Amino acid sequence: MSYLFESFTGWKSYCEERKISLPESVIEYEIDQKNGSNDQIKAGLLQAYGVMKEAVKTGLEEEMTSRSGMINNGAKKVFNHPLSVLSPEFQKLISRALAAKEVNSCMGRVVAAPTAGASGILPGTLVTLQEIHGLSDEQIVEGLLVGAGIALIIEEKASLAGAVGGCQAETGSAAAMASGAIVYCLGGNTDQIFNAVAVTIQCMLGLICDPVAGLVEVPCVVRNASAAAIAFSSAQIALANVSAVIPVDECVEAMGEVGASMESRYKETAMGGLAATLTGQAISERVLIKDIEILPDEELDE
Ligand code: SF4
């Protein structure tokens, strides 16, 4: 039944014909691919959501300075800053996305959903959604199942990897998973969920992957915050029935086409964009020297 995740139109028809929900179809697929049971799959996702919540908490409470020094407790600074241009909820959303991603950059425990580089987006959006609407963990798990289905189709038609499709494939896909999950959790119908995905992809399209010094820190951490914001805005747009005009499957195809034509220096090679700036190069040299300095003698002799 892998054809189920070849397109959004196919996924919708499959569910309509069988009169099952989007999350139920993802569970069916999981059982088909990896065995297990409905309860086991949901328990696994509940555990994953627990790790996401823990990452948010850790990023907001513990020391978060990366070895390169580029990441330095940014989430806490945003969370606690008294002068705000955002609503309190929005400030929390941004802080939480930063927090979970900073944990990743500081080598902590995260859920790579869909990748470690984009690991702040689902935690930031879902924890904030849960708080605003008083949702249960079980409802969030249903949203995560919808997000998983969205990721399967993007992987099939485009890519989830920065090295293949640029940052649109990582943070863009995570934002698409999040916006679809949000609309589902708030009772949106399938068209609204898929429209949220289409709007998100339109907003993230073309984003290159250019990590400074090859580390998943700059611009990755701040992109998790902006992608979380785009997930929220896309969900709001879709819930209000504002059409993305270009159907979701065509948006994903465009994402694949843009990713395929992107030059390799913009695909995680750290040779273009921000990584290639004077400052980016200087940081890269400094990080390299630091790495050599801390290598044990025997490794240097080899
Ligand atoms: S810039 Fe590259 S490494 Fe960083 S989050 Fe985006 S895709 Fe991942």
Automatic annotation (TrEMBL):
Q: Which InterPro entries match?
A: Fe-S_L-Ser, Ser_deHydtase-like_asu, Ser_deHydtase_asu
Span of the signal peptide:
none
Which Gene Ontology MF annotations are present? 4 iron, 4 sulfur cluster binding; L-serine ammonia-lyase activity; metal ion binding
Note whether Iron occurs among the keywords: yes
Q: Which GO terms describe its biological process?
A: gluconeogenesis
Keywords assigned by UniProt? 4Fe-4S, Gluconeogenesis, Iron, Iron-sulfur, Lyase, Metal-binding
Which reactions appear under catalytic activity for this entry?
L-serine = pyruvate + NH4(+)
Primary enzyme class: lyase
Highest taxon of the lineage: Bacteria
Q: What is its EC number?
A: 4.3.1.17
User: What protein family is recorded?
Assistant: Belongs to the iron-sulfur dependent L-serine dehydratase family.
Q: What is this protein called?
A: L-serine dehydratase
Domain Serine dehydratase-like alpha subunit, by residue range, is: 18-275
Organism field: Algoriphagus locisalis
Q: In which pathway does it act?
A: Carbohydrate biosynthesis; gluconeogenesis
List, separated by semicolons, the cofactors it needs. Answer: [4Fe-4S] cluster
